[in-house]
Design brief:
The chain is mostly helical. The chain has a domain of 69 residues. 53% of the residues lie in helices and 3% in strands. Helix 2 packs across helix 5 and helix 4 packs across helix 5. It starts with a helix and ends in a 7-residue tail after the last helix.
């Protein structure tokens, strides 16, 4: 079977452009796209006006929204899709850096403004009080020799 390479290239470029225009780089089709596009209104209908998810799903199915292989969308599937869209939006919001009046994170770090970032600190046992002088931890050669001799004294014969 022969294929038309020119048409193949054109189709591939068109599909790639459609995918790149999508926020998550995947082509959105079907029920998920409808729910993502109308998420706020569906939430408002459920939370403010008290419409059940099953009734919303039936209304969407009457307008042609399907799941899987052309089956009408169910209330359970609608709630699952709403949860997925909400979770994805929250995840994307966390990944986006906060807009800080034009200052980038590198500029804030250079300026010493680390508010809102995690900091590392020592545990109370490891922290040293300010102003307390700690003796020099260096050990003399003689002390090292005496310590090693004490470790192996049980192996030496007593005379």
């Amino acid at each position: 079977m022969r294929i038309d390479l020119k048409r193949l290239r054109g189709d591939a470029k068109r599909l790639k452009a459609a995918r790149m225009a999508s926020p998550s780089r995947k082509v959105k089709t079907g029920a998920t796209k409808v729910i993502r596009d109308n998420f706020d209104e569906l939430e408002r209908l459920h939370n403010v006006e008290g419409v059940t998810w099953a009734d919303l799903a039936s209304s969407l199915a009457a307008q042609g929204v399907t799941q899987g292989a052309g089956l009408p969308i169910t209330g359970r599937r609608l709630t699952a899709l709403m949860h997925n869209v909400r979770s994805r939006a929250e995840k994307m919001a966390k990944k986006r850096p906060p807009q800080d009046q034009g200052n980038s994170s590198r500029q804030r770090q250079r300026n010493g403004d680390l508010a809102g970032q995690k900091s590392v600190s020592l545990s109370p046992e490891m922290a040293r009080p300010i102003g307390v002088h700690v003796p020099d931890p260096t050990i003399s050669e003689d002390e090292i020799r005496q310590t090693e001799l004490a470790k192996h004294a049980h192996l030496l014969r007593k005379r």
